[in-house]
Automatic annotation (TrEMBL):
Occurrences of domain AGC-kinase C-terminal (ranges): 315-382
Record family assignment: Belongs to the protein kinase superfamily.
Keyword Nucleotide-binding: yes
Origin: domain of life: Eukaryota
Annotated keywords: ATP-binding, Kinase, Nucleotide-binding, Phosphoprotein, Serine/threonine-protein kinase, Transferase
Cited Pfam families: Pkinase
Lineage: Eukaryota, Metazoa, Chordata, Craniata, Vertebrata
UniProt cross-references to InterPro entries, sorted A to Z: AGC-kinase_C, Kinase-like_dom_sf, Prot_kinase_dom, Protein_kinase_ATP_BS, Ser/Thr_kinase_AS
Residues annotated as binding ATP: 86
Protein name: Uncharacterized protein
Record domain Protein kinase: where: 57-314
Molecular function via GO: ATP binding; protein serine/threonine kinase activity
Amino acid sequence: DFEAVLAEYIDIELKHDSLKHLHFSDMVSFIPGWISCDLRVVFLKMTEQQLVSAADFDYLKVIGTGSFGKVFLATHRENGRYYAVKVLQKHIILTRKEERNVMCEHRVLLKTVNHPFLVKLHFSFQTKDRLYLVLDYACGGELFYHLQREGVFGEPRARFYAAEMACALGYLHSLKIVYRDLKPENILLDSAGHVVLTDFGLCKEGMSGRGTTRTFCGTPEYLAPEVLLQKEYDRTVDWWGLGAVLHEMLYGLPPFYNADRLEMLRNIIYQPLVLKPRVSSAARDLLKRLLNRDRAKRLGAKRDLTELQSHPFFLSIHWDELVAKKITPPYVPLLSGPGDLTNIDPRFTELPVPQSLGACEEYGATFPGFTYSNENILSLTRGH
């Protein structure tokens, strides 16, 4: 058939998991130059009929904002299912020369599509002006929002979240990916109360166990000292980040926090870690080991996730059951349905939804290889 012949021409093996879901309109850039322009046009028209488009969704509310655009709660018009649709503005990405980071996020989403604690990509597509990532809607909201409302979490709840985060980070590390941006805003809860790690824009790929890099990136409160000092760093920056988030869950603020940002950065580099005894000795010991300024001695430096799993703080965690989601979360969001917005910050949901989002726009291939479909949209059960 036509697709098989074309695949042979462009030397793509469709059985490969990361390629078989690519939309063929994105493969047009691989077509040899000797194939006529007319054939290319016919090919694009044939394949675009299969494409999930912006017009297939109803955009209901803004549920998040970012550097390049916004995240919207949306439903698909055919199956009624709720999704979080991340809409990125191409002109902002191109002006800031962030194409590499955007495509890195897309590749990481393709590689991690089946992990229980990482957000799942269902579809991605592009128009002339925008990029669309259609993701799971985690209606439990951001961990940040819950921390703001509650101040601190008890140890059982903090332990549960930290364990699920650790599994997600360990899985990324097994794929030679360093996350580099762990913070409560990037940690979501699903409808059952499980962790969903999202936003892979700052990930670094190709980082083996001993691999290092020196790119300065991340969020100040959660940055490891070696990143601030612009030294070589490795995957253990993620374990520092986990320590910082765990500290915030238990004590209400990130470690070394100061309202004066410059003073806070000095504290991260030089100030001794002081832990008040209102949490268990096991929790304090874990924090000291994760927030070790010497990355070679930081917990996780030698055996990565395995080291954390054997720490006394996690003694009560049955890791196989945790990954299988057989452990009931300590907090289950009270929801009215799959599109519930109770746990989404009103500062997002009160923002206007642009009417142009669902309009039929001209297809644009500024980002070759971006289009993806993980499933047949019509085969999904309505409303699930």
